[in-house]
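note to self: the first set is below, dont mix up w the second
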Amino acid sequence: MSTDIKLDQQGGNWLVAESSIFKSTATDIMLDAPSRRKGGSSPYRRALVHDFEDGLTLNYAGDYPGGVTVHGGLQVTGDLRLNGRLVADHSGLASTSALDNAVRRIQTLEQTLESLLALVGAVVIPNWPNRTEILEGDDMRLVNEPAEELGLTIEYHYEYRNPKYEHEEVISISPAPGTVVMRGITVVVRMNLEE
């Protein structure tokens, strides 16, 4: 293939480079259409960066506030490392049969434990992070139920202005979270207060 650069293709606003290999000695390739900017703190829009680890980084430093979207299939031939949260949309994640089987086994085990606890009138002490969840449970009551609904009495012990904890943040719970106890027992919660 012969090498050629064509200007003003497709109505005067295209640049076409024809070649077998396109090489740039630049460290950054920026794609920045001012009409499509929607804020963001970076003055740059670095699409591709030959980074300091000799890797290729997309959306360097999060320059594109809208992130990176891949339409169509994405095939990864090496390791996939995640340094943030994994958020799946309505379509969910495809998983292997081994993972599906493990999930089913865990769900079955949870149902068995819930049945046994109900049968003997026991509960599992939640890992409440703060006073609000002790009193009200988590937002959907999926993980942490309120102490009152579990039939537990709470005895509060306070530390004041502990710099490691927020106001009304739980420092410790005794018996420890995850412990199976009978309804009606007293649970000691050590909590930080800023006042």
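second set (the one i keep forgetting abt)
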Amino acid sequence: MVIDAPAAVRRRQITDGDLDAVAELLSRGFPTRTAAWWRRGLARMAARAVPEGYPRFGTLLESGGRPVGVLLMIVSRVGDGLRCNLSSWYVEPAFAAQSPLLLNHALRDRAVTYVNVSPAPHTRPIIEAQGFRPFSRGLLLSLPWLRVGRERVRLHRIGGTVPERFADLPEAGLLAAHAGHGCHAVVVEAADGPHPFVFAARRVLNRLVPTTHLIHCRAVQDFVRFAGPLGRHLLLRGCPAVLVDLDGPAPDLPGRPISLHQTRYSRGPNPPRPGDLAYTEGVIFGP
């Protein structure tokens, strides 16, 4: 009996010329998403700014002249540090033994904080063994417009260009970048100064309920503080519910915890806090 030996496997960075093949591979690995959906997200990755010296798309495994495995890497500068969202890790079953090649290579830079915000259940033991630790566990499906508050504030919707009055905010670039990706960026102007927020579109309950996800704020308690005006602002734009990441007891907001199995992980010098998913896959790829 003759057994065909598998073709040699090599690891390399993803290039622009690989994007169609990578999209097809990911659509097979994650069949709830179409190749067109992956192409749209990869096109956004191609257009965004990336810190010098870091991969634009990530890494693939190649065998016989075609990709057989992929790990996307969304690298961004967040504050004074670097963050890399490891996303969409898939290797064809015939090459599963080579899967650690992707992750081990990706994790080599100790200056970078790596995050995995949507790990498949079967990969959690692997990433925990690599030193990843949870930074949020579960989600709150909140109805913030029901919260009553007496504080007088003004809300400012931010587009692709940040108004001059907020140009000096440390988050000015973050607000503009996320607005450019279709997120809802808002600055709440209160007596103690401006407070930035970013929300990304989601759908829950079998994708029937229009919802937003709190993607960035300085602290979840800021969202609790301004929940009433923010919630009514979003409600008027067709979004009655807001998803808030949890790491402990639910904050004092109308709503109920959901997806308690949804754990997000990080490894590195600057672990994110709940409520900070800036520049991650939910922003780049969308709902």
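remember for set 2: Confidence is low (pLDDT under 50) at residues 1-5.
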